[in-house]
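Case study B.
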Amino acid sequence: MGEPILELRGVNKSFGPVHVLHDVDFTVRAGEVTALVGDNGAGKSTLVKCIAGIHSMDSGEVRFAGSPVHVHGPREAAALGIEVVYQDLALCDNLDIVQNMFLGREQLRGGLLDEAEMERKARQTLASLSVRTVKSVRTLVSALSGGQRQTVAIAKAVLWESRVVLLDEPTAALGVAQTRQVLDLVRRLAEQGLGVVLISHNMADVFEVADRIATLYLGRMVAELPAKEVTHSQVVELITAGRSGDLGMARPEAATV
Amino acid sequence: MTSTPTAGTRPDDVRRHNRTALLRRLHVAGPCTRAALAAELGLNRSTIKALVDGLAAAGLVAERLPVQRSGAGRPSLLVLPQPHAAVVLAVDIRVEQVAMGLVGIGGEILGRCSWSLRRGASHPTEVITRVADSFRPLAEELATDVVGVGVSVPGVVRQSDGLVHEAPNLHWTGVRLGERLSAVLDLPVKVGNDAELGALAEHVRGAARDAADMVYVSADVGVGGGVISSGSALRGAGGYVGEIGHMAIRPDGRPCYCGSRGCWETEVGEAALCRALAIPEDSPRGAVVAELRELAADPEVAMRRLGEFAEWLALGLVNVVNLLGPELVVLGDLFAVLPAAVVDWVGHAVRERSLVSRAVGGTRVVTSPLGRDAKLIGAAELAFEPVLSAI
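Model:
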């Protein structure tokens, strides 16, 4: 198999005296959904923000498509092809779908906004994801349902030909039907060959779409396993205790030696 | 039409027939002006008006002034099918996942969901329960009534009652899928073979709209084929046509789960493709797609790495073309992601080696524009068949 698309080795991050990430290793492969799970405060969002260039890492190595990179800001991450869809979505309510998808990266023609081209591309992207639930790409985001907003945010990643998409709790605020539609979209993203990271608290969601499950426990990556090889309860144990049988952290007596 | 050949035709039947024909035209080919409808269906303009008015009153179509005018005079009204007016549930059962979609008139997918299955460990009851569970929230969100269900299954299916004789990759035998789903969902259910439905989808909405004789060949875990001959599906006794993945093409080849050895599937199925790409055989679908996408960037490398795979694909296709004489071969599902260089080479090889291809003037080999959704769309078309004549 080719190189992982994104590889983190020995990442450390502290906020003042609080050591949030301890020597974290994390791998994202193209075409797979990697679920990143962990309790509140385990460091999931911090890890994502480090990848996205929002936080700088104290130490550690990042390789993207096989070569070492240093990401110093969100723009650099986006230029590499790393797109993050945040919990609170970061969409502008007073703008329409096209304006949101091109926000900060508007296309110009002769010094003016090329509205027709942007609209065409937005429509094409939504169609490539079989998203037909949005009536018009000129609908204001404020008029969309939670699921539709999530769809727009994810479609934005596809539009920019991202190679890695990180989704921070994409289904947290959604109803049953919309959760399923978003998960279906997550799966189709991976099936198009993108590397997808799904942060979720919901084990049902995780097992529905994930190929691999990476568990953070108190800032440490305790296990990174194929979803087929672990059970629901093993993952819950890893999240809450950092170990499950032979999986996860070594037993304390062994660790103290 | 409801009349039997021995009975006379009453005006009622004629009107119903015309209404169905008009609705089917809109469903398949999309919005159209009244004038064009009259020309295409060979009906009087006043007849078209009466039919369209009837459909509009039932909420099945809406009329609008066309944006672009053609020629002088009062513009003919554009007739648009209303997707939400009649919605069917399409279910695509695969070896490793189930996908569901609510599909409206005109073929729009209005809502969808999917979930993973553990390979070979998915009991029919589990799938049926999950379909029923997932169906309600989807339908509630759309706030429409669903009028029928179409299901695609990777196996041998009796269409009359939806009995799945055998779905080897799912380890299903003798499952009364149609009856059981119908009882749970309280809706009419039609079940079809996945490759046959893929062919139907390509014929109605995909690459084969203008081809009366075509073969759809798709690779998921296994390899299957659907055949459209003279514009309609070729099924054979009991609907067993289509297991082209089990053509024996390599006597010294790998054993196949079907009991034979050297089946085409063992050389061009998903596992074979993974071997050709030098990635683990159980790689997730996306990883295979990612590898293929990367290869597509460099045609030379693509041909070098997939040369042997392409050879086996061409060998099988030559047999298929010689046997069935299609004008078009549509490669679906995983085959649809093959690098263009490989598909071109295979098409060229088929035209060069197949006697029948030379006779029909060169069989074209193309990839499916519908990709992974082909079987879902085919299942929706299957469900729409009885619906269009009943509403």
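The first helix of chain B runs from residue 11 to 29. The remaining cases will be described in the next quarterly update.
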